[in-house]
Amino acid sequence: MIRFEHVTKRYADGTTAVDDLSFEVAEGELVTLVGPSGCGKTTTMKMVNRLIEPTSGRILLAGEDIADADPVQLRRRIGYVIQQVGLFPHRTVLENTATVPQLLGTPKARARARAAELLELVGLDPAVHGGRYPEQLSGGQRQRVGVARALAADPPVLLMDEPFGAVDPVVRERLQNEFLALQKSVRKTILLVTHDLEEAIRLGDRIAVYGSGTIEQFAAPAAVLGSPATPYVASFVGADRGLKRLAVTRVEAADLEPADLEPALDPAGPKAPSGAAPAATVELGASLREALAALLQEDSGRIGVTDPVSGEPAGVLTPAGVHRALRRARAQDA
Ligand SMILES: Nc1ncnc2c1ncn2[C@@H]1O[C@H](COP(=O)(O)OP(=O)(O)OP(=O)(O)O)[C@@H](O)[C@H]1O
After folding, report:
1. Which of 67, 100, 243, 251 has a Cα at 20 to 30 A from 153?
2. Where in the numbering of this chain does the CBS domain appear (predicted)?
3. Measured from the CB, is residue 88 less than 6 Å from ligand 1?
C-alpha cells in the first residue's frame, strides 16, 4: 500500500535525515517507526503526504508514484494525526470532527451524524462532549478528537506522529488499547511515529527500528525483541527485553492445563469453596503480561483461561504454562 524505494532526504544545510530507505507497508497494516530523537522518523512520514519532498528515490501509494499526484488530492486520501492535535479553538468538538467531510462536500447534517458516530467510536459521548470547545477537554480527550477527525474523511491511510504523546502514561495506555480495538474494525494502513519502544511494540504489526537515517530492523515486535538484527537494536530494545516480550506473546491453548483436572479430584466438586476453580481469568489470546499480572494476584498460582468466542473455560494457566509460551515464542523467532 505504501512503498518506499531507495528514498533519501538531504536538507539544504547538508543534513541527511533519511538515507536510502526501502520498505513496504501492507494494506491494513500498522507499522510503527521508532528510534531516538533526530533519527529521521518524522521526515519519513512527512514525505508520504508530501509535506517534505524526497531528494531521491520514490514513494508509491497503492502502486502510484506520489510525485505524480496532486498534493491536495493526495492529502485527502491520507489522514494525519499529530501530537499537538491542532483542533480549531473556536469550533465545537462536533464541528471540528465534521470539518473535513464538509469541506469535501458532504451535506452538513450527514457530516455531523457521522462525526457523532466517530466520537462515540473513540470513546467520547457526542451528547456530552460534542458541544464543548477544545479548551474544555482534557489532553487525552483532545487526542481522541484528533483521531476521530482524522478518521472522519475515511482515508485509507493514516499518518500518526506521536499521537498519544501529550498525555500521562495511564491515559496513554488506555488510549492505545482503545485505538487498537478501533483499528481492528477500521483496518486502516497506518504509519505511526513514536520514540517510545513500549508503544511501538504494543501497537505495531511490524516495527521499523531507526538508527541514524536508516532502518536497522523491520520486523514483527516479537522478532525485534527475540532476535535483534544488530548490536544497535539489541541495545535500543535494552536488557529488559525479556519483560517486554511478555507484552507481545499471546496465551495459546497449548500452554494450558485441562480446566477440569483439579475439580474432578476434589470430592466437593467444582463449586467447592476450596478455591479449586481459579477466580481470576484471562481470555485466550491475552498477552502473557496480562496473564502474568493476573497470576501474581492469585495465591493458588493458577488462573482460568476462557475462549473469547464461546465464553467457555479453555483451561488453566500456571507458571509452567507461561514458560511453555515463552519457549514457543523463542522457537518461532529462531
Ligand atoms: N528543515 C530541516 N532542515 C535541516 N535539517 C532538518 C530539518 N528538519 C529536520 N532536520 C534534521 O533531520 C534529522 C531528522 O529529523 P526528524 O525530524 O525526521 O527526526 P525524528 O526522528 O522525527 O526526531 P524527533 O523524535 O526528535 O521528532 C535531524 O537531524 C534534524 O535535525
Report:
1. 67
2. 273-332
3. no
